[in-house]
Design brief:
alpha/beta, 7-stranded mixed beta sheet, 25% helix
């Protein structure tokens, strides 16, 4: 089952030429999930030729302009096609008011159902086929939320040779065993799925963290992420400024990732506009000194998240 992340924008505060505002799109077997929607998100979607009309849910971290001003455009864009399924929008308090006021002031034509849910604490907020999305609190200048998409546990590896040894004929009974169901043979012998299957395997986990000051508890929520997309807005020499503005340095992002344990890769995002494209290497260098599997996200980037086994 494919799991891919598309980086729609990497910038913080204001869009720059070649650097849209922070937003990512996660595609899981054709189903799309949007995380944040700053100014110009539509353009990024179009550039990547993504099928935006299939967005199932939008997850907003907080209601600062650089994370939500693209949302009205997405809502209006979705009215250009026939849509039977509702669009879910999740975010902290005020997101419902923002959506409703935008619809009213802009006199939007909306031909589908919009369901808005406000988040007040750590919880599972969305369930799909074989996965869930968890929300957890961050610390910013206004209520802010981080998210993790977590796949359900998968069945273990099927061993055909064990099924043959147990005299299970190839065909529908093999399929039942692979689903985890015990089967009964023609002589009434019961073959348990556990006899021919390996141990259950974990699914994949993708986490999204922005905007927030550093605090150790973030590590608990992003532990064992196959991919963590995390803000690292400043270099270490601006740690005082980061603290006052309730953001993180790239070093702090790397530290929480290292402390979490089990994170396979961490992509920095939400860069300060003070840094040119070439100066971002300084953020990366500082982060890698703490967590080596760090990379810089870039606008338009596609990241495939494979199964571990």
């Amino acid at each position: 089952m494919n799991l891919e992340l598309f980086v729609l924008g990497t910038g913080g505060m204001m869009p720059l030429p070649g650097r849209f505002l922070t937003s990512v799109l996660l595609r899981r077997e054709g189903e799309l999930f949007l995380f944040d929607s700053g100014e110009g998100t539509q353009v990024s979607l179009r550039k990547l030729n993504l099928k935006w009309k299939k967005i199932s849910a939008i997850f907003i971290s907080h209601t600062h302009a650089d994370h939500v001003t693209g949302l009205p455009g997405i809502l209006m864009l979705s009215s250009q096609v026939e849509r039977d399924e509702p669009l879910y929008i999740f975010g902290p308090p005020k997101i419902k008011e923002y959506v409703e006021m935008s619809k009213k002031v802009l006199d939007m034509y909306i031909n589908y159902e919009i369901i808005v849910q406000e988040i007040t604490g750590p919880e599972i907020i969305y369930r799909g086929d074989g996965f869930s999305v968890n929300a957890f609190p961050l610390r910013h200048t206004k209520p802010c939320v981080g998210y993790s998409l977590v796949e359900d546990e998968r069945s273990g590896v099927f061993f055909p040779e064990k099924a043959e040894l147990a005299k299970v004929p190839m065909g529908p009974l093999w399929s039942e065993l692979q689903k985890g169901n015990d089967v009964t043979l023609s002589d009434d012998t019961i073959v348990k799925a556990s006899e021919v299957m390996g141990s259950p395997r974990t699914g994949r986990k993708v986490s999204f963290v922005t905007d927030t000051q550093y605090f150790p508890e973030i590590s608990d929520f992003v532990r064992d992420s196959d991919l963590l997309i995390c803000e690292g807005m400043f270099k270490a020499d601006l740690e005082d400024s980061a603290r006052k503005k309730m953001h993180m340095t790239s070093s702090q992002a790397a530290q929480l990732t290292a402390d979490a344990g089990g994170v396979k890769k961490m992509g920095l995002i939400h860069y300060s506009p003070r840094y040119t494209k070439y100066e971002l290497s300084g953020l990366l260098e500082e982060a890698r000194s703490i967590f080596s599997d760090t990379f810089l996200t870039r606008d338009g980037q596609k990241i495939v998240i494979p199964y571990e086994d």
